[in-house]
Specification:
Blueprint (H helix, E strand, L loop, with lengths): L2 H15 L6 E6 L2 E7 L2 H4 L6 H9 L4 H6 L1 E4 L5 H9 L4 E4 L9 H6 L3 E4 L3 H13 L1 H7 L3
Length: 145
């Protein structure tokens, strides 16, 4: 498996260990991680800190050219909020760990010219499947159900 998806999975596992939701993300530019994050809604009492949003926050201010050349890795298909940030900052390629447990806005991203690749990685699927079974109320809160 790609080292960058491994880094996103490590972020997801860290989030779970902190009592949060196991979704992780990294943003890669020119072969190095410039931002990493995991879902910290529970830990921070945040309405918006999904894994992708946390990775953007931790990447900090970047020129538009950096984001246009970057690749975003995420363990789970990005929701509408995170997909909006991907579009806003001009990320052109997204690598998704899995979309079986949750199908985000992949078609929206593709319709706007973003290359989306879905790996259906078994470790990503297991992380979410086990979490959703154990904490369905927290998962539903995270996706606005």
């Amino acid at each position: 498996m790609d080292e960058f998806m491994q880094a996103a999975i490590a972020e997801a596992r860290q989030g779970l260990a902190e009592g949060g939701i196991p979704i992780g993300s990294v943003i890669v530019h020119d072969g190095r991680i410039i931002g990493r994050g995991h879902n910290r809604r529970v830990q921070q009492g945040s309405a918006i800190l999904h894994g992708e949003m946390d990775a953007f926050e931790n990447a900090g201010r970047q020129p538009a050219s950096v984001y246009r050349e970057a690749v975003l890795y995420t363990t789970l298909s990005p929701c509408s909020m995170c997909s909006g940030a991907i579009l806003l900052y001009g990320i052109r390629r997204v690598i998704v760990g899995e979309n079986r447990t949750f199908m985000g806005e992949e078609e929206l991203l593709r319709s706007r010219g973003v290359a989306v690749e879905v790996l259906q990685d078994e470790s990503c699927i297991a992380l979410m499947r086990d979490f959703i079974a154990a904490r369905p109320e927290l998962w539903n809160e995270d996706i606005g159900v």
